[in-house]
Amino acid sequence: MVEPVGNQYVVARPVYSENLFGEEYEKVHRYHKTFLDNLKLYFRCSSQKCKRIALSLLPIASWLPAYRFKEWMLSDIVSGVSTGLVAVLQGLAFALLANVPPSYGLYSAFFPVIIYFFFGTSRHISIGPFPVLSLMVGDVVTRLVPDDLGNSTLTNVSTIDEQKVMVAASITVLAGIFQLVLGIIQVGFIVIYLSQSLISGFTTAAAIHIVVSQLKFMLQLKVPGFSGPLALIYTLKNIFEQIEKTNIADLVTSLIILIIVFVVKEINERFKAKLPAPIPIELIVTVIAAGISYACNFKDKFKVDVVGKLEQGFQAPVAPDINVFQSCVGDGFSIAIVGFAIAFSVAKVYSIKHDYLIDGNQELIAFGLSNIVGGSFKGFAASTSLSRTGVQESTGGKTQIAGFLSAIVVMIVILAIGFLLEPLQKSVLAALALGNLKGMLMQFREVGILWKKDKYDCMIWLVTFVAAVLLGLDLGLAAAVGFELLTVIFRTQFPNCTLLANVGRSNIYKNRKDYADIYEPEGVKIFRCSAPVFFANMEFFKDKLIKAVGFNPLRVLRKRNKALRKIRKMLKKGELQVTPKGFICTVNGITESDEELDNNRIEELDQPTNMADLPMQIDWNSDLPPNIRVPRIDVHSIILDFSAVTFLDVSAVRVLQQTLKEFIRINVDVYIVGVHDGFLDKLERCVFFDEELKSSMFFLTIHDAVLYILMKKDMATSPKFQTNKEKGSYDHYIINTDGGLRSREHMFPGETKF
């Protein structure tokens, strides 16, 4: 019964052990499905299930019939055109990161969008090239197809470009296969192993790689491609060695473009509530830069490097290179996971904002098919761009029809007007690529915030960043995931273990070190472990428990059994006499060592003490004969709070069983509280209970166990309490200020009564 008293409450109920609670409240029997049951259910076929599967595999069949043509079409058209223009420019720019000719970036901005239109579940993300993925593809291309700077004839350059395109397309198909397989086997949850701190540190490191990789285009230097650990350092070294060869026209152009883009993007961000749509600064500066370059003939006059001839029309589909598959399995998997993780996190943000659901497994399938098709048509890996998605959503995009229309804009450029971009300087594309990095570079600010919030997350960010910068994106990601999992193991292997005390004479128990007004029952230790207990941290848990109670139960037990052997031997020799006050030693100078007493039977010392053959029971905390030394202990009860222990493995159960027996054998009662459902069943299956360990040691809460211990103490010392207990009124008592129990008839408002 709960009685509210103002902003306080009074609870009246019996003291419950798990057994008593189970007897009073019958548990509803629930049938738990077995693996075979779930397997049968999964493969069961019905018309409704077939329809549901078809709709889930082809989401367009669900949302397209419900499309509000009059309300949404105009917004989707405006959004599609705006996003398409941005996609064209980013496709050209990010192709430089992938180390392939710019025109192939347009294929990556077209084919994946069309496929995602049919299979994707997000209504707002814009599919296409993403700088981090482009750079990861570029690393593979650089490693497998090194630049031949010494023999740069037209034929040789064309052959090398074809090889680069083939490698980029093959690694994209491989990444798509990984995504498709993961989606089919329903493991979309794999993205949870990439925490937000890891993704942030990784993308920031990728931004540093992007900046360095674009310097050669901004300065127009012949820098060979480096791959592997310290590739970024080698690239910077090579750039500085030939810095005097910088093309001033490219440098000035790129700096002007970069400043303009940063300023206008800042204006877009600050005044986004007032602007009807973001200012399309990338489009504006591209048109102006291409026009000036063409009119002033920058290519011949200043020897700048331009985009050059763009492939008109679409390429015929090609089969991927199996040799690339064999040598780049790790790279393909990394690209697949990173691409999906970034896209899914962005899609999740917009799904929450606009209140609809996305399916992680279906997203994997959609991205897998998008990359397989895109790679087959010589595109490179696609994900979602934050800036493009922001444009698509902020200009009014309602569905993926906006994405489809953006692909139409890209198609028009590929088929008809791509030649207008031929005089555009590559340094302009490099500046546009860097202009999209502001958000990623600003993530440096998260380090200080994470340090204040959670030092483990801060360390994950720093290790990820340093590893990705120095080792490269592929090895850096693997090292980061390994370190992240290591922190999880570290947190569980060394859990926070504390001693609790009663706060405010209520049913609240907190860390005894944090409060001044606390009550600790005499001889009772309340120990809390805040993590699962398993093979890796079982010994740590045991050590912390022994340290908390102040003695090692096994050592005390062995000392007592040694003392009993010595007492029996002395009684037999007449060296001890029994008196009403205890034992009296009649001789002096006994020097028999513990080793002699052990007699090579150390296992007998671990058994419960047996005093049945002695003329009196020994009080181990009283005075013993001078030559017998046994540690005194002032603890008679231990309460283990397992409310945060979500599971125990078999190894932990075995060690816990042995540890608890050691305490019980030295007359220290142990109680376990707050266990979750199924905990006792697990112990039953592990044969945990026996003559020494009984299920009656389990209680619902800490307070139940404390009151039970105090009632046992009062029953042992107070005849009045024993009489009340026999009448059945022992159920409702509270902790008194002196540590005893007070009847519920004499309680105050706000106190908890049991």
UniProtKB/TrEMBL annotation:
It is found in: Membrane. It is a multi-pass membrane protein. The chain crosses the membrane at residues 77-98, 104-120, 165-185, 192-211, 248-265, 277-296, 333-352, 364-381, 401-421, 459-483. It comes from the Eukaryota. Keywords: Membrane, Transmembrane, Transmembrane helix. Residues 514-709 form the STAS domain. GO terms for molecular function: secondary active sulfate transmembrane transporter activity. One of its GO terms (cellular component) is membrane. PROSITE patterns: SLC26A, STAS. This is Chloride anion exchanger. It comes from Alligator sinensis.
